[in-house]
Amino acid sequence: MGPTNEHRLLMTRRHFFSRNAAGIGTAVLATLLGRDLRADDAPQPAAGDRPFPPLPGFPNFAPRAKRVIYLFQSGGPSQMDLFDYKPALKEKRGEELPASIRMGQRLTGMTATQDKLPVAPSIFKFAQYGQSGAWFSELLPYTSKLADDLCIIRTVNTDAINHDPAVTFFQTGAQIAGRPSIGSWLAYGLGSDSKDLPAFVVLITQGGSGQPLYDRLWGSGFLPTKFQGVKFRSAGDPVLYLTDPDGFTRDDRRVFLNALAKLNQSALEDFGDPEVSTRIAQYEMAFRMQASVPDLTDLSKEPEHVFKLYGDDARKPGTFAANCLLARRLAERGVRFIQLFHRDWDHHGALPVGLPKECKATDQAAAALVQDLKDRGMLEDTLVVWGGEFGRTVYCQGRLTETDYGRDHHPRCFTMWLAGGGFKPGLTYGATDDYCYNIVKDPVHVHDLHATVLKNLGIDHTKLTFKYQGRHFRLTDVHGEIVEKLLA
Q1: CA–CA separation, 321 vs 309, rounded Å?
Q2: How far apart are CA 71 and CA 366, in angstroms?
Q3: Are 408 and 397 a contacting pair, CB within 8 Å?
Q4: Domain boundaries 67-238+297-486, corresponding CATH code
Q5: Are 461 and 479 in contact, with CB atoms under 8 Å apart?
Q6: Residue 462 CA, distance from chain mean position
Q7: For 215-254, what is each residue's pLDDT tens digit?
Q8: β-strand partners of 472
Q9: Rounded to an integer, what distance in angstroms lies between the CA atom of residue 174 and that of residue 171?
Q10: 392-424 in b/e burial notation, b at 16+ Cβ within 10 A?
Q11: Quick one: how far is CA 67 from the chain centroid?
Q12: pTM of the entire structure?
């Protein structure tokens, strides 16, 4: 539904008569709406109402997944040092990347002026795991144990070669900012099963010096702003301005919100602005969150074996491990889309030092989240997604030495994994060439991945649209093919 149609639906009799010939509105308004004008309390939602109901007709068919936890690894993890094993490269160390492999493909400004593009094979050991025989680097000792639970895609590819447009593309389906994020699309189409938490929550690992993360990455774009992601903080109040001032009781807050809702409802009827509707909904959600968020974020109630599973960092607010544990608690409470952002994967240099550091910070917790969901019987209808905005080049950026190398951005092929939610476990999909530079079998574009994820959530990606500036927009733009072989 576009804003024009929504405005028409919101046009009430009061709105109509107040804007017609002088006298008609005045004469009829009191008769038609007298009881409403004398009402003491603003209308409140029934106890069983969902603050975020789905659109009519959604889901379009029976879903395999009810919710998504997206572990976004911002910066671009190196696929050939983690998942895509290329042992033959050891013999080509230091050789120039063949022109027949590069094929004139675009380079970033950081390596475009290098005299040489020397091949830099991974220095890390690889082994096969599980019945599926999936290859994993020694840097992922915990994730590798879940080989038979993961759907590994080696051939994800994107259009962008620099961070900001690439991250924006993964979040919104477009490189240029301004469109709704994937979490906002799901909140809009499917709503939420939670009565007292947002449909879309964002958690960010604190610290680090990676690429900046802008609030627009979880924004609602041209959708009503009630569908944007709510960022939880790791220090102080999890959500700003949620705590009442001293001396202001919860009953006082209820009376205040009732009065405010009456004023906002009047403005909504007068002007038909959907953002006023958003304001009403968000004030009510904030009131409910005052009771739900403190319990949600109190991890002290978790048993000791859970902290052992996620690792010691799970006790430290703002760490990736603590956020993974919090993500499971959010999923249990019916939140539709939970997105974790972890930075510092951008290893243009000193990769042998930087990459192990980020793996140590994330590997155990990511694997623990999958195992925890599985143990609780939630993995079947919870989709976990792991991946960054692009991959890394096989050639070295800067000087290649015996112990040091860096890698530039590479959008042509990189690896992501998914678990649960109807994706096929124990599958390694697609193949890249001997240099991990081009796809030779089964490519999966970002739009294809989005379309496939939406299908498992019960959505036909061509039907989840919003009319804006005369055009029906969707997450997959005018693209996207469902990759059926990825589905269980």
Answers
A1: 10
A2: 8
A3: yes
A4: 3.40.720
A5: no
A6: 20
A7: 999 999 999 999 999 999 887 778 777 777 888 887 877 7
A8: 467
A9: 8
A10: bbbbbbbebeeebbbbbbbbbbbbbbbbbbbbe
A11: 11
A12: 0.87
Contact predicate 139/82, CB 8 Å: yes
Structure tokens at 266: 């009047």
Are residues 130 and 147 in contact, defined by beta-carbon separation less than 8 angstroms?
A: yes
Element (H, E) at 358: helix 351-375
Amino acid at 338: I
What does the alpha-carbon distance between residue 267 and residue 263 come to, in Å, rounded to a whole number? 6
Nearest-angstrom CA–CA distance, 474 and 461: 7
Q: Which residues contact 441 (CB under 8 A, 6 or more apart)?
A: 155, 430, 431
Burial of 358 (0-12, 13-18, 19+ CB in 10 A): buried
**Phi (first) and psi of residue 445, to 5 degrees:** -80, 160
250-271 and 274-296 helices, crossing angle to 10°:
160
Domain boundaries, the chain: 3-37, 67-238+297-486
- Name the burial class of residue 221, with classes exposed (0-12), middle (13-18) and buried (19+) by CB atoms within 10 angstroms of its CB: buried
Looking at this protein, which amino acid is placed at residue 307?
Answer: F
> Which of these ranges, 40-44, 52-56, 181-185, has the smallest mean pLDDT?
40-44
Phi, psi of 155, rounded to the nearest 5 degrees: -120, 30
- Say what angle helices 351-375 and 320-332 make with each other, to 10 degrees: 20
Asked if residue 203 lies in contact with residue 297, where contact means CB atoms within 8 angstroms, the answer is no
Please identify which residue in the block is written with the tokens 């409802």. Answer: 265
Read off the amino acid at residue 473.
F
**Alpha-carbon distance 191 to 181, whole Å?**
14
Secondary structure of residue 152 in the 3-state scheme: strand
Dig out the tokens for 431 from the structure: 């193949």
Cβ density class 40-73: b for 16+ within 10 Å, e for less: eebeeeeeeeebbebeeebbbeebbbbbbbbbbb
Q: Which of 447, 428, 459, 470 is nearest to 155 (CA)?
A: 428
Are 476 and 451 in contact by the 8 Å Cβ rule? The answer is: yes
Q: In this structure, what DSSP letter does residue 238 have? A: S
The answer to whether 358 touches 388, Cβ cutoff 8 Å, is: no
Burial of 230 (0-12, 13-18, 19+ CB in 10 A): buried
Task: Summarize pLDDT for 350-373 with one digit per residue, the tens.
Answer: 999 999 999 999 999 999 999 999
Report phi then psi at 444, rounded to 5. Answer: -130, 105
